[in-house]
Amino acid sequence: MLSLVASPPVISAASLSKPLRSLSKAALPLSRRARPISPFPKTARSITVYKPPMNSIFNRLGFGSRPQPDPASAAIAQGPDDDVPSPGQQFAQFGAGCFWGAELAYQRVPGVTKTEVGYSQGFVDGPSYDDVCSETTGHNEIVRVQYDPKEVSFESLLDVFWKRHDPTTLNRQGNDVGTRYRSGIYFYTEEQEKLAREAMEKEQKNLNRKIVTEILPATKFYRAESYHQQYLAKGGRMGLRQSAEKGCNDPIRCYG
């Protein structure tokens, strides 16, 4: 029986002179080349860079951009307080944090005949409480005090002001943060301005930190909503009335 044995291939010298065809990507047609696998999914959406909003705490502290005020509205809001005190009385305006506690402190002062809480030093005419809380109107929470100068001096009202709050914290009192809680004395007369600046200079000597109280002319006063008036004396949040009797020295619970 004949056996078949496979013969080895014969390689000629001519074939060795020819270059070998590479099986690399460069030798393959473009349509057959392997494409790199991207770890990211394909998308037709354009890529945008995320810009996080400015931290609200900085806005409340008075930093960051603010909307441009309407000139006509700002002119009214920045105008003088056109209300008139009762005969023989004078006005004074104070910003010392939340106006509830500050008002009660002044209600207790003998010689103070009337107190009102409201908004001033802003650039929007007719603001509401919600508007002021938005930190976009520039207003401060204010106590407007009507007093009889024959019974209580402006210096005595300033003493209450310094004792009532911390004048060294910018745009905040304790946990209350915002430009509406800024420290401010707003004068109606040159004499009030003079006494306020002298008192601040004297108070600064007793403190280790710089006083940031602003001393400015009183501007238009916008009376706050009725439920804010004498808030703590009427019971506050807890319904527990706090005394507004003249000369009372009871501790004031700021939120009732």
Entry summary:
The chain is an alpha+beta fold and 256 residues long. It has seven helices and eight strands, in the order αααβαβαβαβββαββ.
Biggest sheet details: 6 strands, mixed
Q: State the secondary-structure class.
A: alpha+beta
Beta-strand content: 15-25%
End-to-end gap: 119 Å
Strand tally is 8
Treating each run of at least 4 consecutive H or I residues as one helix, how many helices? 7
| Secondary-structure element pattern, one letter each | HHHEHEHEHEEEHEE
Low-confidence stretches: 1-5, 19-28, 38-55
Task: Explain what you see.
22% of the residues lie in helices and 15% in strands. The chain is of the alpha+beta class and 256 residues long. The strands form two sheets. Strands 7-6-1-3-2-8 form a six-stranded mixed sheet, covered by helices on one side. Helix 4 crosses helix 6 and helix 6 packs across helix 7. The chain is globular.
